[in-house]
Amino acid sequence: MRLLTREMDGYLAGGAWIRKIFELGLELKKKYGEDAVCDFSLGNPDLPPPAAVGKRLAEIAAAADRPFAFGYMPNPGYPAVREALAGYVSRQQETHVSPNDLVVTCGAAGGLNIFFRAVLEPGDEVICPSPYFVEYGFYVANSGGVLRPVPSRAGDFGLDVAAIAAAVTDKTRAVLINSPNNPTGQIYPAEDIAALAAALTELSKGRERPIFLVADEPYRFLTFDGHAVPPILPVYPYSLVVSSFSKNLSLAGERVGFVAVSPDMPQREKLVGGLVFANRIMGFVNAPAIGQAVLLGALDAQVDTSIYARRRDAMAGVLSRTGYDFFMPRGAFYFFPVSPIPDEVAFVSKLAEHRVLAVPGRGFGLPGYFRLAFCVDEAIILRAEEGLAKARSAF
């Protein structure tokens, strides 16, 4: 007797690699002790939230005895929060975004899901550069769509605009980019974004439905070596930004984010209305009340990014000394080194024998690589050097 759909059975058989390795880590820590395992599996920010978050929570708690303190609200979010977010997004995107151009969501994941629910017909395709965040395929499939990965440039994981353009068909509904990128740490420069926008503008001519350009930007705040994430909303009228406060405020468990629509999009109020309705019918209803209230006092705060910069340098040193080939991340908190053997699953298993936990690259659509999340204490990064060296020397 089969309890699940065939689709879900397939998902479980294929597995979510990040969670698999994370659960293996729990077993190893139980067996050998917390300090004996170097766990780089999960992008779970370990830095405490900035002081503004705690201050704001105290203010929220002091007002918790009033009626409807955490009651229902307008589905797009509290008006005051949308007003504040509009200013926040306008500064980042270097264009005027109205409160009516955005919806507060249950994290970036919730934002992507309501967008796909609002615009995808069964069989529609969403193109994304590969490697990509492992959940994208599931989010697209949730609304009957199909994810179409397109390989990034070899070597530096940059956007291959010509390859993306060549992959567009009459079924293409959106191009989804993630910059700074998880898992590679690449940041797509302004000239590549402009080239992609120009290509999509040309390809959209004569179509009944436009091709959307969606930027998933939860790591926008975390860049290194003077690199910056260029704005997307001013360069293409059918563009959207999806983001969250999971990483910059260390609020990963609170699930609060947003979708912002380009102010130049024709009939954008119709798309926003579709996002709001999708938010309701998918069961999110609205973003968490407490998370939204926190934003009112913490939008201009963020964690200490210099700590992540030091960790990146420490991890680069460890990988260099142990002989790995890797791209130096320009943003986010991940390395995506080349596996010493083609079967990176076997290599990741060997790393686990030495109590170093990484995620196979095929979980991100690119076999032959593995991901290391450096949102852990620097001491753990340095302690992993021995295990990384021993695993590599085994092949």
From TrEMBL:
<keyword id="KW-0032">Aminotransferase</keyword>
<dbReference type="InterPro" id="IPR004839">
    <property type="entry name" value="Aminotransferase_I/II_large"/>
</dbReference>
<dbReference type="GO" id="GO:0008483">
    <property type="term" value="F:transaminase activity"/>
</dbReference>
<feature type="domain" description="Aminotransferase class I/classII large">
    <location>
        <begin position="38"/>
        <end position="380"/>
    </location>
</feature>
<dbReference type="GO" id="GO:0030170">
    <property type="term" value="F:pyridoxal phosphate binding"/>
</dbReference>
<comment type="similarity">
    <text>Belongs to the class-I pyridoxal-phosphate-dependent aminotransferase family.</text>
</comment>
<protein>
    <recommendedName>
        <fullName>Aminotransferase</fullName>
        <ecNumber>2.6.1.-</ecNumber>
    </recommendedName>
</protein>
<dbReference type="Pfam" id="PF00155">
    <property type="entry name" value="Aminotran_1_2"/>
</dbReference>
<keyword id="KW-0808">Transferase</keyword>
<dbReference type="InterPro" id="IPR015424">
    <property type="entry name" value="PyrdxlP-dep_Trfase"/>
</dbReference>
<dbReference type="InterPro" id="IPR004838">
    <property type="entry name" value="NHTrfase_class1_PyrdxlP-BS"/>
</dbReference>
<dbReference type="InterPro" id="IPR015421">
    <property type="entry name" value="PyrdxlP-dep_Trfase_major"/>
</dbReference>
